[in-house]
Amino acid sequence: MSHNEQVTTYYLEMTAPDQLCGKPKPEGLDVTEAELKEFRFNRYLYQLVGEPWQWTDKLTLSDTEWQSYAERDELRTWVAYHRGAIAGYYELEHQTGGDVEIAYFGLAPKFVGMGFGGYLLTHALQSAWGWGDTRRVWVHTCTQDHPGALNNYRARGMNVYRTEQE
């Protein structure tokens, strides 16, 4: 990315579960919660999925910092598998006031463009609404992310409530 290129960050939200426009489950894609928390797994998923999009904010964290991030009760992780390979993942973070953030979401490089993103996001939103007293689900994405990300969030029923220019 050139230095003069502006980055736009989009914040999206869903305020009721009936706003979800779900996508059906593709054949051979299974999504499982990693119920036994292991920070090394979260770090691996972060690197696997984030590398093409320059996710760097957590690369410098120590093991201790990763552990306190990933092994909290407020964070849950789901992994999508296709034929035994990791196709993608998402993390949900339960925040105060009934907010759930889709903290990280994405597909592994080999699985981008196969039509898995719509279902994985549907799954993430359903999981978020099913977690306790959820009143709002939100996420942010930016113009450095996959070009289809914003459209996927919108297509599932999320609405942009704020944009920021960097």
From TrEMBL:
Query: What is the species listed in this Swiss-Prot or TrEMBL entry?
Result: Microbulbifer marinus
The major lineage groups are: Bacteria, Pseudomonadati, Pseudomonadota, Gammaproteobacteria, Cellvibrionales
Keywords, sorted A to Z:
Ribonucleoprotein, Ribosomal protein
Q: Which GO terms describe its molecular function?
A: acyltransferase activity, transferring groups other than amino-acyl groups
UniProt cross-references to PROSITE patterns, sorted A to Z: GNAT
One Pfam family hit: Acetyltransf_1
UniProt-listed Gene3D superfamilies:
3.40.630.30
**One GO term describing the cellular component:** ribosome
Q: Which domain of life is it from?
A: Bacteria
Full protein name: Ribosomal protein S18 acetylase RimI
Instruction: List each copy of the N-acetyltransferase domain by range.
Output: 31-166
